[in-house]
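Inputs:
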Amino acid sequence: MVAPPDNDVIWARSLQHSHNGSPALGGVSLGIRDGEILAVTGPRGSGKTTLLHCLSGQLVPQQGEVWFNSVPVHTMGPRLRERLRRDKFGWIAPEPQLVPELNTWENTALPLMLRGTGRREAKKAAMEWLERLDIGMCARKRPHTLQQSQRQRISVARALAAAPSVIFADEPTATLHRTDRAHVLRTLTSAARSHGITVVLATHDAEIAALADRVVPLLDGRRVATVALPAEADTEGRAACSLSV
Amino acid sequence: MLALRLARGSHPLVLMRRLLVAAASAGVGFLLLCTLGYASGHPAHSAGSVLRLLWCFVPLAATVQFAVAVARTDPSTRPRAGLSAVGLGPVRLSVLAAVSTAVSCTLGSMVALLFFLHLRGDLSGLPFDGAAAGLLGAGAPLPLAAALVLLTLVPAAAATASAMALRTAPPRATGAPEDADDLLPEEQIPAPAAPPAGLPWGVALTAAGLAVEAYANRGSTGSAFPLPGKLDSTPAWVLVGWTLTAIGLATAGPGLTYLCGRLLQAVRPGAVRLLAGRVLMNEARRIGRPLGVVCAVLSAVIAAFALYGTGPRPFGPLTALGAVLVIGCTTATLLTSALEARQARAETARALLRLGAPASALRAATALRAAALLLLFAPLTWAIAELAALPLTA
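Outputs:
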């Protein structure tokens, strides 16, 4: 086992994983520096989500190593990994994944409360982030009364409020329209830069990837230099077709 | 056929629940056939036969309730993307649920018929030296049409009830696929259930039931409340009182559960208390009704023991079978409803675990919910039982 370089907050070496036999990752290595915003790009099914699951300790890769701050994650037991996720990592999913029974500020403060932070302190931190993401006025509403973009911003606030050292964002804007998408991403990246939080962003959108400091393209579970795919398959013998909306 | 094919491929625990329904149905079928045997063996005691038949409706209702709960938790009858794509919508799925419930109940009824005929000695001589001959009216011939009608009661009632329950159930969100790379459509968060409104009615009905029962016993002599085997006075008003109490408890159950959850999350809760209380408030309707029924049954059992538990021969074998059926079915219904609530919350639980919520915290929340419900309902059951037994023993 080789110790990882010191300046990397997360360091992974030749990760391999398959879901029930269908290969997802085939030997991906990467290092993530402290405080940077790294985009993992690639089309659907290229292993972005699996890579994020492996890096965040939700999944143990079948082969390969993951180190967080010079501590091996791949050898940890489930309880330790759970603790690591709770204390050091934040997770933003494509869907908000809020708890429907809790209101907005309770949802946002939940990770802090699960760590054992006092209720008042957790509420203060949650309200601060909700204000910064322009949803302070919804603090007492339940998720089902809000719009999808507001829910997704709550999910971003929930990840930020716990002050993690790394935030994993898996297609955080996949279900949003373009204006909401820009807003959510801008708040996430600016908050991450101002607080020195490392962000690992999985996306299939080149426009979003442009916000990142560095881009790691994946294709069919491998790191490639670029994901410029060959042009559309031949349209030979097919009449050009237009769709009027 | 599709019902059978889906059943063949399902999880052993699901099959186990279906088998329990079949067993309950067999028990009820057996009780009904015993009533028929008694009636054909004692044509003079028609009042006693009717009383026995009426008593059979208690285990029958419990079995139907259990069958409906099992049909609701059955994964094969839930709206699914795979089946919806081939044209099996909610309506066809409720028909499917009705068919599979009818199949398991009919299986139980057939077993009951065979067992009954065997015990009567109609198949191959009297077993156990004819010990059960008197009880089952072995001498008299059994009217075939009546037996068949009684045996189809449970399957027909259970199938109809489960089809209706699934027709009226709100469409459930289908589980998200494991692979999150597939972008999902916009998440539909279901609105939380409105607080149940039946608490005042339930309390009023319970109180009225207890009052009716106490009033009916003024100045009566002998045993005021006969079990099926004992026929020394008319129990009509006592029965009405107990029925009212039971309905009242079932109506008050959701309200009480909601109240319990509300108290649990009151006054500066931490994460565990917050999750436990809010979930209980949301699941009040689902959990509360079977819980109220269990509460009513248990208080009836405690009261019956207070009345008859001291006698030399408190109850006969058929009464014992009926009591076991009722207690077993209502408890199993409660557990199945808890399972249904857990299935409905599986997606949220997975999201919480992804956030790094310790599994022990989720378990603690569940334990806290159970403890709070026990703390509220155990004294209530005991109090109702004492109140119900008081006028009968005085």
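Remarks. Residues 171-187, 229-234 of chain B have pLDDT under 50 and may be disordered. The two ends of chain B are 58 Å apart (CA to CA).
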